[in-house]
Amino acid sequence: MTYAAITGWGKCMPPAVLSNADLSTFLETSDEWITSRTGMRERRVSHVGAIELSTVATRRALACAGLEAKDIDLIIYGGVSNDELVPNSASGVQRAIGATHAASIDLNTACTSFCYGLATATAMIRTGMIKRAVVIGVELISRYMDWSDRNVAVLFGDGAAAVVLEASDHEEGMLGSVLGCDIGGRESLRVRGFGCTYAGRDVRFGDTLWDFDGQVIFKRAVQAMAGASVRVLQEAGLSPDDVDLVVPHQANLRIIESVAKYAGVPMDKVMVTVQKYGNMSAATVPVALVEALEEGRVKPGANLLIPAFGGGLTYCSLLVRWGQRVTPLGDSDAELPPCTETALELVNRVRATQDPHGVSRAGLMAPQFVESWATAPL
Ligand code: ACO
């Protein structure tokens, strides 16, 4: 039997930190509101593009696995944030690292993109299609956040991380998965302004309007992640006591606490990063995984439970059995270029291009978009 071991891991966090106090300089919000409702204290804002973040994370993951880029058969770029749509982003990473023999796929299931990428690459390795893959989770939400909307602007951050998977005879890597999509929640999260629907409508890229029903997402997310976690454990013949560490999607501390409670796992077995990075969508799970390894919280042979949800509303819970090695084989010297602006300056630069009452916003508010998305005529 062939398995897909995780043999390399690396993250790339942009250095500029945006605090709750920074957000209060241009939004009617407060540190007290944000921390009590979400657990978030700060998040990162990137000064470079998403391919560059991903490239540094991937170089670190490859060094950790002791592999060279030419050894890789497949790169999966998981996330919503693309520097451009054509050519795709995975090929940008492929070129930057020199992975001359790889295939490159962009995969977008919103916040679950890394997890779905892990499931896809694992299946391809286990069926013998490929031997080695890189799976990236990355997001650069600061570039298209609606910075005038306090309901969403306080929640998100930028970041990237990557893992390397290799074919193995040992029973390790992703051993179980429940993947699904709660279609009834599809309308609760939409970023207006992306996609062909908006062509010819005076909508500028980067000007967005978020349809975001936080309370609906909250309830459906807890239900979906907890249900999937119970099922993936049952299918593997494991109980919650067999879980050594939960590495959940980090959208809100209260969501994480509820999922842990319903799944029957105490919070001291849950990896939490939401306080320092906010919700990095597809990057949250891999960054939390890398930090769990850096902090020595992943022991050899550990059972990891990875529940996540995202726009769609896609959801999943993965069961990963860690291998024997929990330390890197090597280090990479890959670094981002220095950042010369503060996070607030970076955000203010994006804000200066967004006009909450301008033509672009009027295009996004057009009645045909608001009333009927499926049939909106041009
Ligand atoms: N600062 C101050 N007040 C705010 C802010 C803010 N940043 N944002 C909203 N409010 C106000 C609203 O205007 C509203 O005021 P009103 O009652 O006068 O109308 C009130 O606070 C809203 O309060 P609640 O709805 O009770 O807030 P809640 O406890 O539900 O928390 C939150 C809101 C944090 C959005 C929560 O619902 C949540 O986390 N939902 C899920 C979020 C989520 O899933 N995010 C990820 C989506 S993408 C992904 O990861 C899949």
Structure description:
- The protein has helices spanning 20-24, 31-38, 50-65, 89-97, 113-126, 150-153, 214-236, 253-263, 274-277, 284-294, 343-353, 359-364, 367-371; strands at residues 3-12, 16-19, 42-45, 74-78, 103-107, 132-139, 159-168, 173-181, 189-192, 209-212, 245-246, 303-310, 314-321.
- It is of the alpha/beta class and 378 residues long.
- The protein has one domain (3-374): Thiolase/Chalcone synthase (Peroxisomal Thiolase, Chain A, domain 1).
- Strands 1-7-6-4-5 form a 5-stranded mixed beta sheet, sandwiched between helices. It has a 4-stranded mixed beta sheet with strand order 8-13-12-11, sandwiched between helices. A two-stranded antiparallel ribbon has the order 2-3.
- A hairpin with a 3-residue loop joins strand 12 and strand 13 (314-321).
- Helix 7 (214-236) packs parallel to helix 8 (253-263).
- The longest helix is centred in the middle third of the chain and has 23 residues, at 214-236.
- The radius of gyration is 20 Å and the shape is globular.
- Acetyl coenzyme *A (ACO) binds next to helix 2, helix 6, helix 7 and strand 12.
What does this entry show, briefly?
The chain is an alpha/beta fold and 378 residues long. 34% of the residues lie in helices and 21% in strands. The protein has 13 helices and 13 strands.
Can you lay out the helices and strands and say which pair or pack?
Elements: E1 3-12, E2 16-19, H1 20-24, H2 31-38, E3 42-45, H3 50-65, E4 74-78, H4 89-97, E5 103-107, H5 113-126, E6 132-139, H6 150-153, E7 159-168, E8 173-181, E9 189-192, E10 209-212, H7 214-236, E11 245-246, H8 253-263, H9 274-277, H10 284-294, E12 303-310, E13 314-321, H11 343-353, H12 359-364, H13 367-371
Acetyl coenzyme *A binds at residues 29, 33-34, 37-38, 110-111, 150-151, 154-155, 189, 214-215, 217-218, 221, 251-252, 279, 281, 309-311.
